[in-house]
UniProtKB/TrEMBL annotation:
<dbReference type="Pfam" id="PF01035">
    <property type="entry name" value="DNA_binding_1"/>
</dbReference>
<dbReference type="InterPro" id="IPR036217">
    <property type="entry name" value="MethylDNA_cys_MeTrfase_DNAb"/>
</dbReference>
<feature type="domain" description="Methylguanine DNA methyltransferase ribonuclease-like">
    <location>
        <begin position="7"/>
        <end position="74"/>
    </location>
</feature>
<dbReference type="InterPro" id="IPR008332">
    <property type="entry name" value="MethylG_MeTrfase_N"/>
</dbReference>
<keyword id="KW-0227">DNA damage</keyword>
<dbReference type="InterPro" id="IPR014048">
    <property type="entry name" value="MethylDNA_cys_MeTrfase_DNA-bd"/>
</dbReference>
<dbReference type="InterPro" id="IPR036631">
    <property type="entry name" value="MGMT_N_sf"/>
</dbReference>
<dbReference type="InterPro" id="IPR036388">
    <property type="entry name" value="WH-like_DNA-bd_sf"/>
</dbReference>
<feature type="domain" description="Methylated-DNA-[protein]-cysteine S-methyltransferase DNA binding">
    <location>
        <begin position="79"/>
        <end position="157"/>
    </location>
</feature>
<dbReference type="Pfam" id="PF02870">
    <property type="entry name" value="Methyltransf_1N"/>
</dbReference>
<protein>
    <submittedName>
        <fullName>Methylated-DNA--[protein]-cysteine S-methyltransferase</fullName>
    </submittedName>
</protein>
């Protein structure tokens, strides 16, 4: 049985979907696929992953911490999982291009396929697909809308430590 928790955030409500052990989805309230993606039976019982992601997202949006440790249930084909794993390694406040990801996963597939796989990420923000941009530095494609991508990148830019002796919170 999956449980659902709605979270208010600066980028709009997010719907967290989890079982007793793992977070399965994090969805924007205006996601066109919301109804189709959550057709499974759900309840509003609080679970440990829901409590954990609520606390981690609160810290993230307040700018105090960008580390997510909630266990994730990641589903997808092998290449999708490789793409998402690459995204998880992009440091806070930095970006990569879809071409960078394609080269890293040794994909002979086109950059468009990599972009589509970024778009099938069911746990945005936590798996930071918003950090993937066009090779020319442009903000391209984001399931939550480009305004959210821009907001997240600016927010993370403010959170990123600068220099060897940077202090948290300054």
């Amino acid at each position: 049985m999956l449980s659902v928790l709605w979270l208010e955030t600066p980028i709009g409500p997010l719907r967290a979907v989890a079982d007793d052990t793992h977070l399965h989805r994090l969805e924007f309230h205006d996601d066109k696929n919301l109804a189709d993606a959550t057709a499974a039976e759900t309840a509003t019982v609080r679970t440990a992953p829901l409590d954990q992601i609520e606390a981690e997202l609160a810290a993230y949006f307040s700018g105090t911490c960008a580390e997510f440790k909630t266990p994730l249930k990641i589903t997808g084909n092998a290449l999708e999982r490789k793409v998402w794993d690459c995204l998880l390694r992009v440091p806070l406040g930095e970006t990569c291009s879809y071409g960078d990801i394609a080269r890293e996963v040794d994909s002979i597939d086109s950059v468009r396929v990599i972009a589509r796989y970024c778009g099938t990420n069911h746990i945005p923000v936590v798996i930071p697909c918003h950090r993937c941009i066009g090779s020319d530095g442009s903000l391209t494609g984001f399931g939550g809308g480009l305004w959210r991508k821009k907001w997240l990148l600016r927010h993370e830019g403010l959170m990123r430590p600068v220099g060897l002796f940077a202090l948290a919170g300054q």
